[in-house]
Each structure stands twice: as structure tokens, then as C-alpha cells.
Amino acid sequence: MQAYFRMNNDILDLGLSPNEIKVAVCLYSCVFGNSYNVQIKQSTIAEKCGIKKEETVSKIIWKLVHKGVIERVERHCRANGRLGTNIYHLKAVVQKGFFKVKRHILGVLSGVQLRMYLFVCRAIVEKKNDMWNSFNDISRALQIGRNKVIDVINELVELGVIAKRNVIKDDGSYSDNHYSISVDENVVENVQEEKEESPEQAVMALIRTFPIVYQLHFKQSVISCQAEIQDFSYFYTGVVP
User: Fold this and answer.
1) CB of 222 within 8 A of CB of 189?
2) 203 phi/psi in degrees, rounded to 5
3) For residues 67-93, average pLDDT
4) Does an H or E element contain 54, and which?
């Protein structure tokens, strides 16, 4: 399976709501090759997009039809007379008017985070994987406040789905931040599965930061030093050996 799928450059210019963008991304993520006919249950779309009701998905589908993201919807009868799963005929991706989106991103981001992520995907120079749009540029393009832009960008950086790089000009001043798409498909899962450190883990992490200083201070053998470390851990965690 390809690690990415394609979306038309104009997807962010259609005035789609956050949930409409989620459903559009879900449908296009099901496209493989040059076939833009996607057959998927509305219950599956709801699950992938974090939408509670299938009725909400149904309403969004027809809004996407009205806005041209979906060209038409078909539903054939099965041999037993029951209606089959909907088939969505999506607007084909223009050969030179698309950007790439990682498949693993679906269902991970909130609506506003996904919209920002798509903007970054569209804005980067593909060969360099680099975007340097200012916060004001992004604010105007997405029609959201500058402070909100900064918050969401920082959230995406913390999640690890995009990377930030500070750029210094020749005169020593800072230029606009540069952003790139993370190449690690597992980074979001790692962030989501990360658990809070136990007291023992926190203390041992602190001790590992200063192993050389610790040993020089006590001038003991390795075995003795390890014993001291264990006692130090017991003291701060409240564990009785």
C-alpha cells in the first residue's frame, strides 16, 4: 500500500467545514491508482473520522456533492433485493494540481489540526519538503486568527507530524520558521501511546543524565556506585527495599 494519497490543491479553497474536510480526506485516502470510485460504508467513514452519527456523515456527503468534491453517488441493489454500499465518484485529482498526504494521518488530528496539516502539505516545496509561509500568510489563507495559527502549528510540532526549523539570516536576525512533513509514520502512534512516567522512571532518568559526575563525586567502584543509585531511587520513590 502506498504511504500517501493525493488531493486536489483547491480542497482548502472550497469553504469546507472541519468535518467536511475529514470526510473528504477519508474518501480520497481510499483511492488507489487512477480509480476515483470509492465504495465504503458510512459507518466506516464515521469511525475513521471520529463522527458519532451516521446521519451526520450522510448530510456531509451531500454537502460534498454540492461543493463538487463528490461528483455523484450510486447505490446498487444486491441479488437479494437489498441496497448495497454507496459508491462515491470523486472529483479526479488534476495531474499537476495536487499535493500528497500521509495515509496514517486520518483519525489522528482534530478538524482544525487536519486543515492546518493539509495547508502545510500543499505549501511545501516537494523536492525540499520545506514550507516558510508566515503566520500572517497562513492566517489569511485559512481565515483563522494568527494566535490560533501559532497554537495549532505548535500542536502539530508536538505531535511530531511536522517539524519546525529556525532560520537565521545573514545579518543574524531570524527569518520566518521553516516547516516540513515528518517522514516517520509511527511518530503519532508513539505520541498517543506515551504514558506518564512512574516516580522510579523519573528518578532513574535524572540519574542517567549525570552518571560521570555521580561516579567522580563518590570515587567508588561501579558496583558500589550502582548500589548508591538504587538507594537514591528508593529514597525518592518511597520504596522500602
Assistant:
1) no
2) -65, -45
3) 90
4) helix 54-66
CA-based R_g, the chain, Å = 25
Model confidence, pTM: 0.70
In tens, the pLDDT along 26-60 reads 999 999 888 899 999 999 999 999 999 999 999 99
Identify the bridge partners of residue 70 per DSSP, sorted by sequence position: 90
Q: How would residue 1 be classed by pLDDT, with cut points 50, 70 and 90? A: low
Q: Which domains does the chain have, with CATH numbers?
A: 1-107 (1.10.10.10), 108-194 (1.10.10.10), 199-237 (no CATH)
Q: Please, are residues 10 and 119 in contact by the beta-carbon 8 Å criterion? A: no
Residue positions counted in the chain? 241
Q: What tens digit of pLDDT does each residue of 109-126 get?
A: 999 999 999 999 999 876
Integer Cα distance of 124 and 101 in angstroms: 12
Q: Among 173, 107, 164, which residue's Cα sits nearest to residue 135?
A: 164
CA-based nearest residue to 84, from 92, 95, 96, 73: 73
| Sign of the CA dihedral running 121, 125, 128, 132 | negative
On whether the CB atoms of residues 97 and 122 are closer than 8 A, the answer is no
Considering Cα of 125, then 133, then 4, then 188, what sign does the dihedral take? Answer: positive
Residue 107's closest CA among 161, 66, 48? 48
